[in-house]
């Protein structure tokens, strides 16, 4: 019996129809992927001005490893690859495990995943504001000031300076040069204090009155509107409240301390015979927290890493949570029945079973950080963008910023392409293995 002939629509016409449907995709693939790739590879062997600049061979590739800015970009990209994928996978794993144990898991997942709905450029702008060094503007440093001020409060007069040469600096404090004896008077005048910085409740400075066996004194704002005499307490000059004053013996040891009253007055009582020096304690001049320069050269890369991890932690959480939901619960219960603690179950059962999912997150993040660009250019100021540069950003700045070196820019693009190929091959191999 003869085999049946081809059904209607089969045979050569079927392949022509399939090729016709695939043709637009093939054309776009060639125009937007194949041709630019080949052109970039060829272009990387020519000079900055194009084919008219002449063949330079591998000189552009030598430039990658001899120019300081490009070497810095490669070092930064290596840091990104080493830090971001591991942290994103670890944080996502922790979040995915936690959301199974809390009631408000939906709200938690929404908040953590929300940064994924924002563009990286917008995220960079947002974090740039948060990283401002002034604690009154930057949220990160505002939190740091709250913590630091709770541990080491700022001084009452951080900007004050002596009004005369009789007060000299000594280990952060100001010490009166004039030696004192019981029954003496210490005049500690300060200036450089704005009226708004004066402690609340301060009033007219009091002229100290000598008392036998005591050392009396006053700390005041030695400034009189319209003129006055330095080192003399005058009408219209205000005492400074809450200043820590110290009495030191001839060896420099603090023997007594006191706080000034609203009129700036203080006294040291029952002072033994001898020679002393009075002064204002260093805590009075302690500077307030000025904030860390997160956008400066030394911290810009860690600042970028934190912002980027914040974006992608939600992605990692959702992917790992999906893998966790598909995990067979009987295996977990069997481990618990055998006496394993929750930490042992997590480390020896949960993590190994989630290994394929964790590899997806890790490989995806490696590919992403190798081509990271937008958040760097949005967050890093112009003064530190060179310190924060990555390979992708270096490629753009080299090729499309003056003096427009397209040859070296193409070489950077090819180098980045070669870095991504092994990761893509690993990803494809993993997909084939799962199929």
Task: Give me some keywords for this one.
435 residues, alpha+beta, MetI-like fold, Immunoglobulin-like, 2 domains, five-stranded antiparallel β-sheet, four-stranded mixed β-sheet, 14 helices
Q: Quick recap of the structure?
A:
The protein has 435 residues and is an alpha+beta fold.
Kindly report how far apart the N and C termini lie.
Answer: 40 Å
CATH topology of the largest domain: MetI-like fold
Helix percentage? 40-55%
Question: What's the pLDDT, averaged over the residues?
Answer: 88
Low-confidence segments, ≥5 residues, pLDDT <50? none
Q: Give the biggest beta sheet.
A: 5 strands, antiparallel
Structural class: alpha+beta
Number of helices: 14
Number of strands: 11
Radius of gyration: 35 Å
Compressed to H and E, one letter per element, the order equals HEEHHHHHEEEEEEEEEHHHHHHHH
Overall geometry: elongated
CATH architecture of the largest domain: Orthogonal Bundle
- Count of all domains: 2
Q: What share of the residues does DSSP label as strand, in percent?
A: 5-15%
| The CATH C-level class name of the largest domain | Mainly Alpha
Largest sheet strand order: 4-5-11-8-9
The quaternary structure here is single chain
The CATH homologous superfamily of the largest domain corresponds to MetI-like
């Amino acid at each position: 019996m003869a085999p049946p002939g081809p059904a209607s629509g089969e045979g050569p016409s079927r392949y022509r129809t399939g090729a016709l449907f695939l043709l637009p995709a093939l054309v776009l693939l060639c125009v937007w992927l194949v041709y630019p790739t080949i052109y970039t590879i060829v272009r990387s062997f020519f000079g900055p001005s194009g084919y008219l600049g002449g063949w330079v061979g591998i000189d552009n590739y030598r430039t990658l490893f001899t120019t300081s800015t490009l070497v810095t970009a490669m070092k930064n990209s290596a840091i990104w690859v080493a830090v971001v994928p591991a942290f994103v996978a670890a944080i996502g794993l922790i979040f995915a495990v936690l959301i199974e144990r809390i009631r408000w898991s939906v709200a938690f997942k929404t908040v953590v995943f929300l940064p994924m709905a924002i563009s990286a450029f917008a995220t960079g702008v947002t974090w740039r504001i948060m990283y401002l060094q002034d604690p009154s503007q930057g949220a990160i440093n505002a939190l740091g000031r709250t913590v630091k001020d709770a541990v080491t409060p700022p001084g009452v007069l951080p900007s004050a300076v002596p009004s005369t040469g009789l007060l000299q600096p000594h280990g952060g404090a100001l010490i009166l040069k004039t030696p004192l004896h019981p029954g003496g008077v210490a005049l500690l005048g300060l200036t450089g204090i704005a009226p708004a910085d004066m402690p609340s409740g301060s009033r007219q400075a009091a002229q100290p009155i000598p008392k036998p066996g005591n050392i009396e004194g006053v700390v005041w704002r030695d400034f009189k509107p319209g003129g006055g005499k330095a080192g003399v307490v005058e009408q219209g000059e205000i005492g400074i409240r809450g200043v820590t004053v110290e009495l030191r013996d001839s060896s420099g040891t603090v023997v007594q301390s006191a706080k000034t009253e609203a009129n700036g007055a203080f006294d040291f009582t029952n002072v033994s015979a001898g020679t002393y020096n009075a002064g204002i304690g260093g805590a009075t001049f302690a500077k307030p927290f000025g904030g860390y320069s997160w956008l400066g050269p030394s911290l810009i890369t860690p600042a970028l890493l934190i912002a980027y991890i914040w974006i992608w932690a939600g992605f990692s959480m959702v992917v790992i949570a999906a893998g966790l939901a598909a995990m067979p619960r009987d295996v977990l219960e069997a481990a618990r029945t055998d006496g394993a603690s929750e930490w042992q179950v997590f480390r020896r059962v949960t993590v190994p079973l989630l290994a394929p999912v964790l590899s997806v997150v890790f490989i995806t993040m490696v590919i992403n950080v190798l081509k990271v660009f937008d958040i760097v250019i949005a967050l890093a100021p112009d003064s530190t963008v060179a310190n924060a540069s990555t390979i992708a950003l270096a490629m753009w700045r080299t090729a499309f910023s003056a003096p427009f070196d397209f040859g070296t820019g193409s070489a950077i693009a090819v180098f980045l392409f070669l870095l991504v190929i092994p990761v893509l091959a690993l990803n494809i191999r993993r997909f084939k293995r799962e199929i």
